[in-house]
Specification:
By secondary structure, the chain is an alpha+beta fold. Helix content is about 30%, strand content about 25%.
Length: about 425
């Protein structure tokens, strides 16, 4: 038997939470097969099998903390098994009676899967797996109606409406089952969930930022009517290049252009508080509400990229953040940030600076509102509200107002950006 120890994930991380085991005791595994997902305080990390073999023990239960260089699971390497064993389908080794009884009960209560993906997994999206965890369900319990037995959100809802509960996973004492069911008296128990991983790191960072940086807010309206029209004209060409062209690439490119005249917005204060460091590259972060919690990956070197290249990076980072698998390099080195709260329907927000950056802007939703044109005629215009938060140690209201005016000028007359593109 070989012990697999949790490897050093880097960034000084010494422990992480086991989010989901993709294997169970007795399973035959292949080299590089995903075996477990663990959550650090930076991202969700997938750990793969070092070699082929048979799993003999899982040391750390789901939801518990695993420590770096401590045993994570044990397995018998394939080369150590007899030839007749490896030539046949993987039989599950005998287990102690209580475990076998529990497994039998689970098998009896779980409907057979109609399809299995790679490595014998039932297909399901990360959002579905999170919903299952929230309800204390196992993927095998819910019959999937999608392609190859894929479990959909609708399947979970239907399962719960039919009275399905997490007690199907393992029999629970009567008292515990009663507590887990919805009380008929209308009273509900408090659900306690430990604050770990990315959410815990974000909580610490936001507390530190709000308590150490003197914030001030600045609001403005943008008329993005012409910008919306330009995006519609460019959309077909972007789609031909397999890029999804949203407004965010324009926001970022205009910001990088405005920063050339106001480099203080792309600076940071050193720890001693006696030096201003002007950064050579404009790495613009964007807040993404992902599977692992709020993340702020950043697009590197926006001043050097085309709109299509920025759109491609945004698409990649958004997908990875929502899956909780953003690389450490994409989370580091940000110089200024954008929070697009308007994508969820918000009009105004007062964002907290992503330290050690000196500014962040919250973008509200676009609304079609009446405005007066230059002939005093009422016209319909696309109006978007933006709210800046600035570090008052380095920038003041006048600076951020002039910077916002420059940024606004590029967005309200987007063709002017062509004059400054390299």
């Amino acid at each position: 038997m070989t012990e697999f120890k949790l490897p050093d994930i880097g960034e000084g991380i010494v422990e992480c939470e086991v989010v989901e085991w993709r294997i169970k005791e007795g399973d035959v595994i292949e080299e590089d097969q995903p075996v477990v997902e663990v959550m650090t305080d930076k991202a969700l990390v997938e750990i793969t099998a070092p070699e082929a073999g048979r799993v003999t023990r899982l040391h750390v239960p789901k939801g518990e903390i695993a420590r770096v260089h401590a045993p994570l699971f044990a397995y018998a390497p394939a080369h150590a098994e007899a030839p007749d064993e490896t030539a046949t389908a993987a039989p599950v080794p005998s287990e102690p009676a209580p475990r076998a009884a529990s497994a039998a009960a689970s098998t009896a209560s779980a409907p057979p899967a109609s399809g299995l993906g790679p490595h014998g997994r039932i297909p399901a999206s990360p959002a579905v797996r999170r919903l299952l965890r929230e309800h204390g369900l196992r993927l095998e319990q819910v019959p999937g109606s999608g392609k190859q037995g894929r479990v959909l959100k609708e399947d979970i809802q239907a399962f719960l409406e039919r009275g399905g509960t997490s007690t199907a996973e393992s029999p629970a004492p009567a008292g515990e089952a009663a507590r887990s069911a919805r009380p008929s008296s209308g009273e509900a128990e408090v659900r306690v969930e430990p604050l770990r991983g990315v959410r815990a790191a974000m909580a610490r960072q936001m507390v530190a930022s709000a308590s150490t940086i003197p914030h001030f807010q600045y609001g403005e309206e943008l008329d993005v009517t012409d910008l919306l029209a330009l995006r519609e004209r460019l959309k077909p060409e972007a789609q031909a290049c397999e890029a999804r062209l949203t407004l965010m690439p324009f926001f970022m490119k205009a910001m990088a252009l405005a920063i050339r005249d106001f480099p203080i917005l792309n600076s940071r204060l050193n720890e001693a508080g006696d030096e201003i460091h002007y950064l050579p590259s404009c790495n613009i972060g964007m807040a993404v509400d992902g599977k692992a919690g709020l993340m702020v990956p950043n697009v590197k070197g926006v001043e050097r990229l085309t709109l299509l290249e920025i759109a491609g990076e945004i698409q990649r980072l958004t997908h990875e953040a929502r899956e909780g698998r953003v690389a450490q390099a994409d989370l580091k080195g940000g110089t200024i940030s954008i929070s697009n709260i308007g994508a969820l329907g918000g009009t105004y927000a007062a964002p907290i600076i992503n330290a050690p950056e000196v500014a962040i802007v919250a973008i509200g939703k676009t609304q079609w509102l009446p405005r007066f044109d230059d002939r005093d005629q009422v016209v319909k215009r696309a109006i978007m509200t933006v709210t800046w938060a600035g570090d008052h140690r380095l920038i003041d209201g006048g600076t951020i107002a002039r910077f916002c005016n420059a940024w606004k000028g590029y967005l309200e007359a987007p063709e002017t950006m062509l004059l400054h593109l390299g």
